[in-house]
Each structure stands twice: as structure tokens, then as C-alpha cells.
């Protein structure tokens, strides 16, 4: 099937953007202090909390990378396996949620400081910025690709539009407004995906026709990948989710433990629906459009369906991308304000001053994210880099805070340093030897160092 852009689809994007901006402005009027801006006043009920957890996690990484790219490039089974790390991560956070709420910190850095000291906080802040600016950048580029493919708009113009929307929605009302737009976007996406699966399978001629038109390797368990290469795609998302500051902030923003538990269970159930749906749509797209960029597999299907259905899916995908982008941008700006500005530049800053600085940092980091994406050729590539920098640098140390009482400062900080350095060396200096994502090297290395250094230094202290 030949791709032909349809400018009429711009109406759906436009309507979505107007609704999001209007809702953001309305909710911004309810922001009076930093707690409102960063933790939504700790007022989120289970429904909104579930929506914002869902929308924040499932962004361009799934729509243009993740399940979409893997299903198109390697097949249905490897793509379905990407759901497993998410489910494990949600269940782990469910167990840790009461402890996360008890800490009451704005940032992951604050939690790490309490356990490991000031050096851990400073290092964590740098890691968050390295990873989150990268995550925001590929939301922008993913949105640009979507507009290019579906409406004919240039990728560059689409990326600029995405940057403007992401920055504005993050800055206008913080989590108070982001959580509401997230919830609306999340449920829009669920509906869009559920409607799309049967329609695109019908357009593609059914399962048998799809299977005939894809490479034989796409029906195998690993899709032609070696087992260790497949692990390189599974590990980054797991270890990002386990230590994701966005998720910790949202759990801390709930009304209470009961709301948090209900929201996380709802999030898990919905992921069991939408993650396979994304995989199936992208797999069908491989049959219909065998020569497109893998990251565009899901969005290409909007051009093969009736305009109303295609427009709903397009608006839903745009919603996920924009909400994920503004969530990570807000989270990164929070680190700059409370872990750097408030600790070293202006220790006496008032709450309102910190609020203004957070908004200013949102703009600065948003511009940096836009500039960063120019250096990565694909969404999947920058996704794997950002996930691994964070997953190896933060997650082992933060999990130890909640699940291993014996861990000490030397072990935690050593793990963070090794995780980041190993990732950067493997990805940038060595340029991914053997075509392996760095997660299969750096994450195990970080855990090993955490355990060995902790045990070794504890033994030395006792002697």
C-alpha cells in the first residue's frame, strides 16, 4: 500500500492542542505554591493518578520506538515481550509505594541524599538531566515524524510545534495541570488503540494475509535477534521504570496509599491492553507498508483507515507524546531548582522564587532537548541511550534504599558512577560493540559494584 499524506488530519491535532492548552490554563489558576506545581498539592485521586501514570510512561518511546519499532523490525513476539518489563516495574513500585510516599521528597535526588549523602544527590541530579532531556528530545522528534507522515508537514516544523506545546503545558501549571491533561490523553489513547486493532487487521486482509507478507524471522521468538541482543531491548525500560523520578513524584502526589494502590493496579490492567494493541498494529503495518521507517509503523496506519478513526488514533498518539514530554521536562526542571539552585545558588529562596525558577528551567531545558535531538538519527536509538543512562545510574542505588538495609553510601555512589560511565563508554566511545545496547553491560555492572563495594566496606569497618 502506498502512503499518501492527508492534511485534513491536522484538524484532529488542532482540536487536541486547543483542548490541552485550555485545560492547562484552567488548572494553572489553581496553583498557589510549589507543592501544587510539583506534586499537584498531593491531591490526586485514583482515576487521575492512573491516567497520568499511564500517559507519562507510554509516550513516543512506545508510539515511535519501543513496541512499535521492535514489532516492525523484528516481529510480534519480541514486541510483546517488551510488556514484561513494564509489568514487573509496576508491581515493584506497587510494593514500594508506601515507602515512597513516606519519604515525601520532590526528587529522587532527595531520597538518595537521605541514604547516601550530598554527593549522591549531586550525582543523581546530573544523571536525571542527562536522561530526561534526552527523553524529552525524542518526544519532540517523534511528534515531528508523525505530522510529516500523516499531514505532509516537514519534520522540522512538526518538531518545533511539539517543542512549543511541551514547554508551554509543563510551564503553565506544573503537575496540577499536567496530571489532568495526562489523564484525558491516556484514556483517549486507550480508546483509539482498541478501535484501531480490528479495523487495521481488516484493512490488512486478516492474520493470514499479514503473516504471508512479513519476513519469516518476524514469526520467531527472537525475530532474528540473539538472546543477549533481545535483552538489550528489554532491560532499559525495566530499570528506567523502577527508578523513574516521574513515577515517584506521581505516587507521592496521591491523596493516600489507598488511592495510590488503586491507580497502580488500574495502570497495570490498562497496560495489558494497550501494549499488545500497539504491537499488533505495528505488526500489521509491516505487512501493509514494508519500506517505511520502523518508528512510523503505528502512525502509518492512520492513512489506511477511515479519516475519523485515523484522526482519533493520530490525536491519541500525539496526546501520549506531548504528555510524556511535558512530564519529563517538569521533572528535570524540578531537579535543577531544588537540588542545584536551592542548595548552592540561593539557599534562602522563597517558595514563590523557587516556583518562578522552576518555570524558567522548564524553558531552558526544553530548548536544550530540541537541540539534542538533532544528533540522534532514530527515536529508538536515543530512547535506549536515555533509558540506560538513568536505569544503570539511578535504579540500583534507589532500589537498594527500599529493599536492602545493609547498603551504604560508598556502595550506592560507586554503583551510580559505574553505571553512568559504563553506559557512556559503551554507547559513545566504543560505539555499541557487537550491536548490543549498553544495558546488558552497564546495569549488571552497577548492581555488582553496589553489592561488592557495600559488603567489602562493611567488612573493613567491622575489622
TrEMBL record:
<keyword id="KW-0812">Transmembrane</keyword>
<feature type="transmembrane region" description="Helical">
    <location>
        <begin position="411"/>
        <end position="430"/>
    </location>
</feature>
<feature type="transmembrane region" description="Helical">
    <location>
        <begin position="227"/>
        <end position="244"/>
    </location>
</feature>
<dbReference type="InterPro" id="IPR038377">
    <property type="entry name" value="Na/Glc_symporter_sf"/>
</dbReference>
<keyword id="KW-0472">Membrane</keyword>
<dbReference type="InterPro" id="IPR050277">
    <property type="entry name" value="Sodium:Solute_Symporter"/>
</dbReference>
<comment type="similarity">
    <text>Belongs to the sodium:solute symporter (SSF) (TC 2.A.21) family.</text>
</comment>
<feature type="transmembrane region" description="Helical">
    <location>
        <begin position="296"/>
        <end position="322"/>
    </location>
</feature>
<feature type="transmembrane region" description="Helical">
    <location>
        <begin position="187"/>
        <end position="207"/>
    </location>
</feature>
<protein>
    <submittedName>
        <fullName>Solute:Na+ symporter, SSS family</fullName>
    </submittedName>
</protein>
<dbReference type="InterPro" id="IPR001734">
    <property type="entry name" value="Na/solute_symporter"/>
</dbReference>
<feature type="transmembrane region" description="Helical">
    <location>
        <begin position="436"/>
        <end position="457"/>
    </location>
</feature>
<feature type="transmembrane region" description="Helical">
    <location>
        <begin position="157"/>
        <end position="175"/>
    </location>
</feature>
<dbReference type="GO" id="GO:0022857">
    <property type="term" value="F:transmembrane transporter activity"/>
</dbReference>
<feature type="transmembrane region" description="Helical">
    <location>
        <begin position="39"/>
        <end position="58"/>
    </location>
</feature>
<dbReference type="Pfam" id="PF00474">
    <property type="entry name" value="SSF"/>
</dbReference>
<feature type="transmembrane region" description="Helical">
    <location>
        <begin position="360"/>
        <end position="379"/>
    </location>
</feature>
<feature type="transmembrane region" description="Helical">
    <location>
        <begin position="265"/>
        <end position="284"/>
    </location>
</feature>
<feature type="transmembrane region" description="Helical">
    <location>
        <begin position="6"/>
        <end position="27"/>
    </location>
</feature>
<feature type="transmembrane region" description="Helical">
    <location>
        <begin position="118"/>
        <end position="137"/>
    </location>
</feature>
<keyword id="KW-0813">Transport</keyword>
<feature type="transmembrane region" description="Helical">
    <location>
        <begin position="385"/>
        <end position="404"/>
    </location>
</feature>
<keyword id="KW-1133">Transmembrane helix</keyword>
<dbReference type="GO" id="GO:0005886">
    <property type="term" value="C:plasma membrane"/>
</dbReference>
<feature type="transmembrane region" description="Helical">
    <location>
        <begin position="70"/>
        <end position="97"/>
    </location>
</feature>
Amino acid at each position: 500500500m502506498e502512503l499518501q499524506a492527508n492534511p485534513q488530519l491536522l484538524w484532529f491535532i488542532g482540536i487536541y492542542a486547543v483542548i490541552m492548552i485550555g485545560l492547562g490554563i484552567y488548572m494553572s489558576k489553581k496553583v498557589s505554591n510549589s507543592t501544587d506545581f510539583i506534586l499537584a498539592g498531593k491531591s490526586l485521586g485514583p482515576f487521575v493518578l492512573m491516567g497520568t501514570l499511564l500517559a507519562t510512561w507510554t509516550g513516543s518511546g512506545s508510539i515511535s520506538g519501543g513496541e512499535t519499532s521492535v514489532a516492525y523490525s523484528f516481529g510480534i513476539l519480541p514486541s510483546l515481550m517488551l510488556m514484561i518489563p513494564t509489568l514487573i516495574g509496576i508491581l515493584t513500585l506497587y510494593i514500594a509505594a508506601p515507602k515512597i510516599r513516606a519519604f515525601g521528597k520532590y526528587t529522587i535526588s532527595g531520597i538518595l541524599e537521605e541514604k547516601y549523602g550530598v554527593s549522591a544527590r549531586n550525582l543523581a541530579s546530573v544523571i536525571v538531566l542527562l536522561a530526561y532531556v534526552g527523553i524529552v528530545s525524542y518526544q519532540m522528534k517523534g511528534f515531528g515524524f508523525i505530522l510529516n507522515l500523516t499531514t505532509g508537514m516537514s519534520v522540522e516544523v512538526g518538531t518545533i510545534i511539539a517543542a512549543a506545546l511541551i514547554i508551554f503545558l509543563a510551564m503553565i501549571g506544573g503537575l496540577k495541570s499536567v496530571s489532568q491533561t495526562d489523564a484525558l490523553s491516556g484514556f483517549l489513547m486507550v480508546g483509539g488503540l482498541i478501535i484501531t486493532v480490528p479495523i487495521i487487521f481488516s484493512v490488512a486482509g486478516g492474520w493470514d494475509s499479514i503473516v504471508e507478507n512479513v519476513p519469516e524471522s518476524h514469526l520467531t521468538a527472537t525475530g532474528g535477534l540473539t538472546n543477549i541482543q533481545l535483552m538489550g531491548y528489554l532491560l532499559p525500560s525495566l530499570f528506567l521504570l523502577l527508578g523513574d523520578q516521574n513515577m515517584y513524584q506521581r505516587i507521592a502526589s496521591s491523596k493516600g496509599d489507598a488511592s495510590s494502590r488503586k491507580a497502580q493496579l488500574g495502570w497495570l490492567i490498562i497496560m495489558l491492553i494497550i501494549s499488545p494493541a500497539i504491537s499488533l498494529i505495528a505488526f500489521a503495518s509491516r505487512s501493509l507498508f514494508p519500506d517505511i521507517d520502523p518508528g512510523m509503523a503505528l502512525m502509518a496506519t492512520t492513512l489506511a483507515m477511515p479519516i475519523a478513526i485515523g484522526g482519533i488514533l493520530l490525536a491519541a498518539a500525539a496526546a501520549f507524546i506531548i504528555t510524556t514530554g511535558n512530564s519529563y521536562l517538569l521533572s528535570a526542571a524540578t531537579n535543577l531548582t531544588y537540588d542545584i539552585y536551592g542548595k548552592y545558588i540561593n539557599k534562602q529562596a522563597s517558595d514563590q522564587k523557587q516556583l518562578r525558577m522552576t518555570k524558567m528551567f522548564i524553558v531552558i531545558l526544553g530548548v536544550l532537548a530540541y537541540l539534542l535531538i538533532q544528533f540522534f538519527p532514530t527515536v529508538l536509538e536515543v530512547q535506549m541511550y536515555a533509558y540506560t543512562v538513568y536505569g544503570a545510574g539511578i535504579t540500583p542505588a534507589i532500589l537498594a534504599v527500599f529493599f536492602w538495609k545493609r547498603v551504604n553510601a560508598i556502595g550506592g555512589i560507586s554503583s551510580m558512577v559505574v553505571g553512568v560511565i559504563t553506559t557512556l563508554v559503551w554507547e559513545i566511545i566504543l560505539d555499541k560493540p557487537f550491536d548490543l545496547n549498553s544495558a546488558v553491560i552497564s546495569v549488571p555492572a552497577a548492581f555488582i559494584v553496589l553489592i561488592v563495594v557495600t559488603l567489602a566496606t562493611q567488612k573493613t569497618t567491622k575489622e
